[in-house]
Amino acid sequence: MFDPEGRVIALPLEPALRIEAARNSIEAFGLATTEINVAVPGLENPEGRVVSLQSRPGGYLESSRLVLDESGLASTRIRSESTGKLTIRANMAGIAPATTEIQVSFPHLTLAAAIFGGLIGALVRVFGSQQTAREGFRWRSFIASMLSGIMIFALYAVGVNILPVAPTVTVGATLVFAVSALGAFLGIAGLDALGRASGGESDPGLAEEEH
Questions:
Q1: By the 8 A CB rule, do 122 and 138 touch?
Q2: Given pLDDT bands bounded at 50, 70 and 90, which one contains residue 190?
Q3: C-alpha to C-alpha distance for 103 and 26, rounded to whole angstroms
Q4: Helix, strand, coil percent values for the chain (each to nearest 5)
Q5: Is CB count within 10 Å lower at the N or C end of the chain?
Q6: Whole-prediction pTM value?
Q7: Distance CA 157, CA 149 (A)
Q8: pLDDT tens digit string along 123-147?
Q9: In the sheet that 60-61 helps form, which strands lie side by side, from edge to edge?
Q10: In the beta sheet, which residues pair with residue 20?
Q11: Domains and CATH numbers, the chain
């Protein structure tokens, strides 16, 4: 019999595997990470089901085996490697795979900010030294301080902060400049002295190398 008001008929939704990156472009050489989100809408009782991830041709996944929650969601992070296009593929038994792409670019701005920050920090350190006032410009100390700043930023970029402060801003060229400049200004000897003052162990050889 014809019903002029119509009827609501619920049709089952075919499960589909979806994957997306929080950012579609990141910097290379391990300087950046981004979140990878996986969803399987339409899947009945998804909790505990496993999704495997593959990254080609590079990249470092925090976890290549994701376990879905009760909503059919899971996430992990990926760290960059070399430049180029990165393809992340999600696989799950019985469901068609899904892929997403991330463009990994050369970190021109970050490297320039790190070098410039190290340069400024080293200049402030050397020209502010009383020994420089007595003996003139010291190239050895300047180069050592500048390289220290760049090295300290590289450590910061991979999660090792040896500075006496923890910046609240965690991204951007200004942060890169500030970390490198502060690292160069403090230098190896300055960081070693701070470590001793805070009760940590230090290596006397590190402090001696800068003089």
A1: no
A2: low
A3: 6
A4: 35, 25, 40
A5: N
A6: 0.74
A7: 12
A8: 998 887 766 555 666 788 889 889 9
A9: 18-21, 33-39, 73-79, 60-61
A10: 37
A11: 18-105 (2.60.40.10), 108-209 (no CATH)
